[in-house]
Amino acid sequence: MLGDLVHTVLTEEGYAASVLGAVTTAAIRAAVDRLEPDCLLLDSRGPLDYGESWRDAPGPTPGPARCRW
Question: Full-prediction pTM beyond 0.90?
Fold first, then answer.
């Protein structure tokens, strides 16, 4: 799974990383509230469908990675 690979790379580099398997609106919001992340890396359902996770993820900028610095 790509999420596992990204998690491994980030944690080996010293970052705190979490992978969210459930991508429902409620699960995303609960994880963001609990973890208060500085950065979200989002996947899509397919090449033309970004799915609910992209629409619902909080962040100052739209796109596949939403980070606050």
Answer: no
